[in-house]
Amino acid sequence: MDFSYTKQEEQFRLELRDWLENNLPEGWMDGSFKMPEDQQEQGQFLRDWQKKLSEGKWAAIAWPERHGGRNATLMEEIIYHQEMVRVKAPPLVNYVGLHMVGPTLMQIGSKEQQEKYISKIITGEEVWCQGYSEPNAGSDLAAVQTTAVKDGDKWIINGQKVWTSFAHFADRCFLVARTSKGEKKHHGITCFLLDMNQPGVEVRPIIQMDGEHDFNEVYLNDAVAYESEIIGAVDDGWRVTIALLMHERTGIGAQVFSLEQQFNELVELARNVTEDNVPIIEKTDVRKRLLNLYIKSRGSLLNYYRNLTKQLKVGHPGVEGSMDKLFVSENTKELFAEAISIQGHQGLLWKKDAIYGDSYWQKNYLYSFGQTIGGGTSEIQKNTIAERILGLPKDIGK
Amino acid sequence: MDFSLSQEQEMFREYIKKFLVDMERTKIARDYVDNKTEHVKNVISDLKELGWTKLNIPEEYEGMGLGQLDLVPIMEEFGRVLLPGLYLETNALAVPLLERFGTNKQKQLLLKSIADSDVNFTVAWLEPGGSYKEQGIQLTGEIIQDQIRLNGVKTQVPDVELAQHVLVPLRINNEITLISVDLQTPGLLVTPQKNFVETRKLFTIHFDNVTVPIENVIGQIGDGWGILQECLLYYNAALSSVAVGAMEQIVEMATEYAKIREQFGNPIGRFQAIKHRLADMKLDLETARSLSYYANWTLETSAEDRTEAICSARIFATEAFIRLASHNIQIHGGIGFTEEIDCHLFVKQARYYENYLGNIEQYYDLAIEALNWTNQKPAQAVQEQAIMAHK
């Protein structure tokens, strides 16, 4: 058992820290920086940030050097997440491109596709979104109903996608569509590299319960894709669909590190918020709730490190990732719920009237409901744990 | 980064496991329940032949000089079969106490005999109506030349029939002191006490003018509380591993049953009501394991966060043990409610450890103090003072 980092790993950490200190926007670290309110400006800010990262070779560290990456080890990726969480770095607007589409193109894409798309992904010049979920295909992805019909050298696409993150900024979409009715529902699926800038694609915002707009509905009305925009073979897209999802090496690492940080922030909150001039951390009940969260956040981190150890030994992520996802998302939800609860009735106050941190806690509390749904619901994770780890029989209907 | 047990540690597990499988696993516990005490003593003695008790004893006292982490897989295997006996009290409490605070003579005599022969320690701490807090210790010791005369009553002392010595916290001049008492000492009145945890037998011990040599005091007179709290960290880290082993067995049992038991034409494990509960149980098990590995690691490396890490493991593992053992009965349905199946033994054992050698509430308080969420003096400082005073 050894939790230390090698000299080389520590060197990597220092190099990144140094770069972040010199390159994060003015006022970012002390919290005086304000993200632009206007959506267009926000999009531009995020693209500029990614461009800056790519210039420093910090946008896609796991990519091979010839594509602008650093060929980073798994441990370097872990350190990368730790450091990005530490400074609460701005999000990667092209997350889907960097972590999913890019690696899939390198693995399965044609030479032409690789040349056309990869370099623009890393610079943020072309932002990608992921066209998977549909109103009737959420956890059951193979039930996609969006159709693509061949018409000469074109494919005509009709249907609706939903929960598409960053679609309002996206230039291209990694789209899953049905091209034929197979014997089984995961047959007859094809993956397209769709151009978002065309009349047949309409993006409508989804406003979440926290008032924010991260997701969209994407309507496809006779949208056009060309033969050259098919990745993998026609009707054989299920394999490609899964390959895209398999490129996440570090699993929910970033959320695990965030949970640890959010827990420390919660303790600070409990020290600073007072009731009748007494800090609420003085209450026995509050301290006990904090300790339960402490145990769970430590448990999330240590579980993650144990699974990481296994991954370092066997070379690929294991199905245990489903336990990490379940635990960290449920614990995050619980943490923010407690954060609201311990503030008492004043915990309801919102935005500038919130008693602490411009409703940081309230916003995160409302947002946290999405965490046990997105990326596979907790129920799906439990099925995976039961079936693939414990070996219980498949669910009825599978 | 390597958060796993080493190959050597895992290898030792296999020896222990094989022995326990040959002994038909929980049959040893059931024999103990059936009062086949001599037979159980023999099994424990044969198990000792494998050399596991030497692991964390220094080489100069016939041990192997290994650390707390080396005990982890062994404690897990013991937990798995609900092994009766005083392995926790002896190897995870008496050994660190003697090694760290014992006199040379005590080490020569007692550590060597733990390593080599069938010597076990039990703990007589709780008093009728009392607590595991300082004020709960009222048994008195009066110094008479080179002897101490003990008066008072200790209750719920486990497995006295399997022990040769008993660790007794008491008050000398109103200061808490720890003493080791030979169970052959004349005048000890030992009477059995019934309890529903049949795998641990309890006794009351009356000390009525019992005299014990003053050289049996462990540490200094008046240091008893600090050294006991310090060494309970070792005990609790090991206890969390015992709970993990038991939980692993529970998850296996419940999973196997869910695969074979059919209702409505399907194995019940196909239904999400069962499946999701099992997934929750598996997650609890693995979380307890991570916390317990880390807790034991902090002792081996004297990590700064050891108090909160060990309390976390102790709290989570014992609470999860109760939760999982209870779910196990529910998943088994009617058969799980019977005496015939092991399910009930696990529930009872889980309850034994909830409040043993410290109420669970006390561990919440201890962790909260160590994390410095209070204005009170951290408990760790009290322990450190005691250790410093001893040096």
Secondary-structure element pattern of chain B, one letter each: HHHHHHEEEEEEEEHEEHHHHH
If helices are DSSP runs of H or I spanning 4 or more residues, what is the number of helices of chain B?
A: 12
Q: What is the level 1 CATH name of the largest domain in chain B?
A: Mainly Alpha
Q: Give me the number of helical elements of chain A.
A: 11
Largest interface: A-B, 48 and 46 residues
Counting copies of identical and different chains, the oligomeric state is heterodimer
Task: Label the CATH architecture of the largest domain in chain B.
Answer: Up-down Bundle
Mean pLDDT metric of chain A: 94
Largest sheet of chain A: 4 strands, mixed
Terminus-to-terminus distance of chain B: 35 Å
Outline the low-pLDDT stretches of chain B. none
Order of helices and strands of chain A: HHHHHEEEEEEEEHHEEHHHH
| Average predicted local confidence, pLDDT of chain B | 95
CATH class value of the largest domain in chain A = Mainly Alpha
Q: How many DSSP E strands of chain B?
A: 10
Number of domains of chain A: 3
- State the end-to-end distance of chain A: 41 Å
Give the spatial strand order of the biggest sheet of chain A.
1-4-5-8
How would you sum up the global shape of chain A?
A: globular
Which CATH architecture of the largest domain in chain A is right? Answer: Up-down Bundle
Task: Describe it.
The complex is a heterodimer of chains A (about 400) and B (about 400). Chain A is built from eleven helices and ten strands. In chain A, the strands form three sheets. Chain A has a four-stranded mixed β-sheet with strand order 1-4-5-8. In chain A, strands 2-3-7-6 form a four-stranded antiparallel β-sheet, with no helix packed on it. A two-stranded antiparallel ribbon of chain A has the order 9-10. Chain A has about 400 residues and is of the alpha+beta class. Chain A is globular and about 75 Å long. Chain A has three domains: about 90 residues, Butyryl-Coa Dehydrogenase, subunit A, domain 1 (Orthogonal Bundle); about 120 residues, Butyryl-CoA Dehydrogenase, subunit A, domain 2, CATH 2.40.110.10; about 140 residues, Butyryl-CoA Dehydrogenase, subunit A, domain 3, CATH 1.20.140.10. Chain B is α+β, with helices and mostly antiparallel strands and about 400 residues long. Chain B has three domains: about 110 residues, Acyl-CoA dehydrogenase/oxidase, N-terminal domain (Butyryl-Coa Dehydrogenase, subunit A, domain 1, Orthogonal Bundle); about 100 residues, Butyryl-CoA Dehydrogenase, subunit A, domain 2 (Beta Barrel); about 170 residues, Butyryl-CoA Dehydrogenase, subunit A, domain 3 (Up-down Bundle), CATH 1.20.140. Chain B has twelve helices and ten strands. In chain B, strands 1, 2, 3, 4, 5, 6, 7 and 8 form an eight-stranded mixed β-sheet that branches. A two-stranded antiparallel sheet of chain B has the order 9-10. In chain B, β2 and β3 form a beta hairpin. The model of chain B has no long low-confidence stretch (mean pLDDT about 95). Chain A: It comes from Solibacillus merdavium. Chain A: Keywords: FAD, Flavoprotein, Oxidoreductase. Chain A: Belongs to the acyl-CoA dehydrogenase family.
